[in-house]
Amino acid sequence: MSAAVLQAAGIHKTFGGAVALHDARLTLHAGEIHAVMGENGSGKSTLLAILSGALRPDSGTIGFDGRSVGALDPVEARAAGIAIVHQEPQLAPSLTVAENILMGRLPASAGFLRWRTVNARAQAVLATLGIDVDVRTKVAELSIGRRQMIEIAKGLVDEPRILLLDEATSSLDEADAAILFRLLRALRDKGVAIAFVSHRMTEVMELADRATVLRDGHFIGTTPIAETDERALVSMMVGRDLKSYWHRAPARPGKVLLDLQEVSRGSLRDVTLTVRAGEVVGLAGLVGSGRSALMRTITGVRTATSGAIVVDGRRVDPRSPAHAHRAGIGYVPEDRKVEGLVMGWSIRRNAALSRMNLRGPMAFLGKAFDEAAFVDGSQGLKIKATDSGQRVSELSGGNQQKVVIARELATNPKVLLLDEPTRGIDVGAKEDIYAQIAKLVGEGMGLLIASSELQELLGVCHRICVLYQGRIVAEFDAEEATEEAIAYWASGAHELETSSQGAVHA
Amino acid sequence: MTTNEGGQAASGSGVRVGTVLRRYLGVGAALLVLIVVLSLTQDNFLRYSNIMNILRTNAVLFVVAVGLTFVIVSQGLDLSVGSMVALGGVFLASMLEAGVPAWPAILITVLACTFLGALINGGLIAYGGLNFFVVTLGMLQLLRGAALVLSNGVTKSTIAHEPVQWLGDGFVAGFPMPVLIAILVGIVGYVVMRWTRFGRSVYAVGGNEVAARLSGVNVRAVRFSVYAIAALTAGIAAVMLTGRLTSSQPVSGALGLELSAAAAVLLGGASFAGGSGTVAGTAIGVLFLGILANGITLAGVPSYWQGIATGVVLVAAIALDRFRGR
Question: Which residues 354-393 of A have a C-beta within 8 angstroms of B?
Answer without folding.
Answer: 354, 356-366, 371, 374-375, 378-379, 382-390
